[in-house]
Amino acid sequence: MSYTVLARKYRSQTFDDVVGQDPIAQTLKNAIKTGRVAHAYLFTGTRGVGKTTMARVLAKALNCLSVKEPTTEPCCQCESCIAVNVGEDIDVIEIDGASNNRVDEIRELRENAIYRPARSRFKIYIIDEVHMLTVSAFNALLKTLEEPPSHIKFIFATTEPNKVIATIQSRCQRFDFSNIGPAVIAEQLKSVLKQEKIKYEEDLILPLAKMANGSMRDGLSLLDRLISAGVEPLSASLLEEFLGCPNSEKIWDLIEQIGDSDAAGTLAAIEDLINSGIVEVQIVDSLIDYMRDLMVVKSTGPDSQLVILTDQQRARAAELAEKFDVAALVYNIATLEKLRWAVKNSDTSRALLEASLLRFALSEHFLNVDQLLAQLKPGAPAAVSSPVGVPRTATGKKKVPSVVSSPTTSQSHVTSDETQTVRREPQTAHDNSQELAGLSDIQSIKTRWKDILMFLTSKLPPSTAALLSSASPSRFEEGVLTLAFGPSAKMQKKMCESNGRLEQIQAVLSEYFSASVKLKLEVVRHDQAETKTSPARTKTYNQKRNELLNDPAVKTVLMGLDATITGIEED
After folding, report:
1. pTM (2 decimals)?
2. What average pLDDT does the structure give for the chain?
3. May I ask the CATH architecture of the domain 416-569?
4. Which residue, among 353, 225, 330, 212, has the nearest Cα to 282 in the 3D structure?
5. Which of 10, 151, 222, 451 shows its CA 20 to 30 Å from the CA of 137?
6. Quick one: CATH architecture of 248-361?
7. Pick from 137, 145, 139, 143: which is nearest to 103 by CA?
8. Domain 182-242 indexed as CATH 3.40.50.1220
9. Residues pairing with 476 in the sheet
10. CATH class of the region 6-176
């Protein structure tokens, strides 16, 4: 007796059996119950998600001979149901659109459509891969689709709905089949293995379900390949041996070496994977998937349902996630996606892969500046720990990736004199507070605004003081100081008003002026912002550079990291 592959043997027979497409199945069942079955349907979705299976189930439901009218529960035992299952029913014609795409063949279909079914209620045409029809063939169908005989039903299936002309789509009821989730595929695979009485290990199912990429048919085909190996119980090690899937422990080990900034360990882990028969592009794909899991775990916690992992894998992911920050993982995933194309098309793919992963291991990516400022103590450089994400120069000195402020790029260094100036200025501003206590007009405040900012920096957390660098004094009336933020600084304004920051700033300003000061924040209009910033455009480059170096937020970063500015660009 010939062997029937699992994908055919366990093909769904009724609406309730269809895996992962419950909304579509329920809609079709309701249409049958209420007598509102359309004359034409368009089923779209990726391969193996149940389009043709659903078409056959619908055909059986409409033509089942065990009942007197269409039913939502075909018997699957009558002559019509059995013939539909094997694709040999005289009244349910399945056509491959790829090999029958010419206009002459569609004209023949149209001519035969006028004849009533031989034994069933409806003559049903199922056209698979309908997007392969030529434009002329589509046009030949239009009239029949618009005014079909009462005994005709059309069911079109396609993986590329964008290639189906609009005039055809407008005459059909369209259903978009979604990819099936790994958890749903995993449950179906377990059910199949139990029915086949094949022993398996639990850690096999989830990786196998993920490899199916949302296709139930692909999942069953992969399972068929593993069963053909003749090894029981089925285990996760067979995925690496027979399906070319990278060993999960080796991928976790590679990520751990990157997280530990171990360059030698990273290269050794890559070597181990390649020696096991895994090509470079598979390593990149696996790293994207695993780092995505780390990103979700880091953001939402190890118990999140957004990741499909075993309990052991969740524990490992939670442990490794502590070695990264979210910004680093986001950067890694984006970089790996760009790297994938280069590795796939390069003659030196291994060198590209090793260079990129070494860059990760040496922390050549971004650090969230707000987190950095929050770690620094006001008025003095603090020793900042270097989580994964902090760039370093070849000499080991940390550096700032880029500073957004000035309209050009330059290489500049902070000298020791400048550092001393940074350390002294807050104290100078504090010493002059009595002298400035008499300031009551806005022009005087504007003149000394930089000194005021330095005083705020010495009294407030650096992250709070840095937010005020985006503001400028606008009005000072009856003890109320109005600070204006530009149109692009709305977020900074909102942050100043949240978490009690506004009250802290008011208290420090009142200390500076030796009088009670209230603070009002506003966002200026675009034309006002243009007016305020237009004089600055006439400044020389050196003036703009000096302004940047004297910016309180920039000084704080440079002091805390003992850093140099490597790039300056205008926002």
Report:
1. 0.62
2. 80
3. 2-Layer Sandwich (3.30)
4. 353
5. 151
6. Up-down Bundle (1.20)
7. 137
8. no
9. 481
10. alpha beta
